[in-house]
Amino acid sequence: MFEDVIIFCLESGYEVWNLIVNYVYLQLGQSPDTFAGGSLWSIIAGVLPIFAGVAGTLYAFMVLLGFFKEITDARQVQVWDYVKIFAKAAIGNVLILNFSNIALQLFRSGGALIGLVGTPQALHTSLSDATREAISDTGWGWQILLILLAVVMLVVMVVTAFGLLFVLYERFIKLVLIVPLGIFACACLPMGMNITGQYFKNLISLILEGVVIVLALMLAAALANSGFSVADGLTENAMLQAVGRMFEACFMMIMTLGIVKGAQNITVRSLGFSL
Fold first, then answer.
1. Predicted TM-score (pTM) of this structure
2. pLDDT value at 92 more than 70
3. Cβ atoms of 122 and 224 closer than 8 Å
4. Transmembrane ranges (predicted)?
């Protein structure tokens, strides 16, 4: 009887984890204009013309500043300097006018990459047979303690799973929020400032963050399903085996949540970005 309660708690925790992980994976493959029925993107799309109008004035000001910056000393001005001025102005103008479409294409490319990298099956985890056997071999007296541990594990699994939802929603809100600001970043390009480059670095790191999240979930699932445990070979005691494996499963989910929350930092450091 006690064994059934323990198994039920653990399986319920895994079921909630798998359900939310699968949902997170499916949503990460979406673009902000389709996430949540496009409700977030519709708000931003409504204010983009306002940002574009203000950015147009900023852009004209930056073109003048960039022009005077390049020709401060007329004796050193060469044809290439004029080419750079007009090239930056032209590129900045194109980016401002088409930034919404450019951002959406980048978002969709990131979503397509996520779909190619992972599959729902690769994210599935379950209670291992070794853990079931260890629980079954434990005496009924110790199983009472294991029930308490299983309840704690159930709570931890549910909390960490909902932590993944928090990361998911936070990521999409950040993606949508930085789109209007990108118009201002592009308006600074004629001045030769590094603002535009820094903005696109941040944008790319946010897009690739979804890929890192999926990879982290896949690696965690593969390690959890491998049956590997530090308790193997260290003790033959069924109680210690069961406790060790249960704690490892709990630790694995907490560690996965930590890696997922720091996915953008991993991307930034790996690509050498300095945000």
1. 0.83
2. yes
3. no
4. 40-68, 144-166, 172-191, 203-222
Select from 132, 145, 114 the least CA-distant residue to 31.
114
On whether the CB atoms of residues 106 and 203 are closer than 8 A, the answer is yes
* Dist CA 218 CA 221 (whole Å): 5
Query: Is the pLDDT at 69 greater than 80, yes or no?
Result: no
CA pseudo-torsion sign 180, 194, 202, 205: positive
> For 244-262, what is each residue's pLDDT tens digit?
888 888 888 888 898 888 8
Nearest Cα neighbor of 242 from 141, 149, 157, 124 is: 149
Predicted local confidence at residue 107, as pLDDT: 92
Cα(262)–Cα(266) distance, integer angstroms: 6
Q: Measure the CA dihedral 165/170/176/182, to 10°.
A: -150
Residue reference for tokens 């399903």: 225
Who contacts 47 (Cβ-Cβ below 8 Å, separation ≥6)?
180
DSSP of 30-66, one letter per residue?
S-TTTGGGGHHHHHHHHHHHHHHHHHHHHHHHHHHHH
What confidence tier does 230 reach under pLDDT thresholds 50, 70, 90?
Answer: low
